[in-house]
Amino acid sequence: MTHSTLKTVRLVLWGMVCVAALWAGWTWYGSLSTPAPASVTQRLAEAQDGQYGAGDYRLVTHTGEDVDDTIFVGKPSLVFFGFTHCPDVCPTTLADIEYWFTELGGDANDMQAFFVTADPERDTVEVMAEYVGWFSERIIGLTGEPEEIAEMIDAWGVFTQRTDLEGGGYNVDHTASVFMLDSGGRFFGTISYEENSETAIAKVRRLADAG
Fold it and tell me: Disulfide bonds, which pairs (predicted)?
């Protein structure tokens, strides 16, 4: 094999490696940034015009109050699933939610936001209270028994997957979109992870106006 031919083969192989790496990265990021379409579509069909994500699950707020799915009814809501050991998506999104509310000013007074843990084994009431307190007094942390959280995650069509880390510990891959519900608990849309701020604020404002 000539030197020029060997060089060509190497370039082709490196190109294949780069494409494979990009595909793997896109697939992983896609699992974080959007809800599983089939699951969400199925849950929307089941809800029809009723409350989205309704179920028999029982949760606990970061202040220790026992609640159920009726907590998502009465005010327009933003609902985000994550976990307190999340390295980037969760802190970024919670900071974004507080920023959106700040930008809406008084129009956000009749809205509510929730951070639902996908890692109830580690995210106790005390842990959630400290964590959400770093970002906003307007975000309500929700945790509960693992089986209750699992039931809620299923009811909402949310993607979660535990991944063990080298050296111990684990991460939780999860849907990174923010769900929007109107005051009747009906599905109003989603806001994608790191969506353009102006677009996100416009969505939240429409939700506030819809009531």
Answer: 86-90
- 86 annotated among ligand-binding-site residues: yes
The phi, psi pair for 34, rounded to 5°, reads -135, 150
Q: What pTM was estimated for this model as a whole?
A: 0.80
| Crossing angle of helices 197-210 and 89-104, rounded to 10° | 60
pLDDT in tens, the chain (211 residues): 444 433 333 333 334 334 333 333 333 333 333 444 457 777 877 777 789 999 999 999 999 999 999 999 999 999 999 999 999 999 999 999 999 999 999 999 999 999 999 999 999 999 999 999 999 999 999 999 999 999 999 999 999 999 999 989 999 999 999 999 999 999 999 999 999 999 999 999 999 999 8
Is 18 labelled a binding residue?
no
Query: 183 and 197 in contact (C-beta within 8 Å)?
Result: no
Ligand-binding annotation for 3, yes or no, is no
DSSP state of 71: G
Say how far apart CA 146 and CA 123 lie, in whole Å.
10
Evaluate whether 41 touches 187 at the Cβ level (below 8 Å): no
**32, burial (CB in 10 Å: exposed 0-12, middle 13-18, buried 19+):** middle
Sheet order of strands, 59-61 included: 66-67, 59-61, 139-143, 112-117, 77-82, 178-181, 187-191
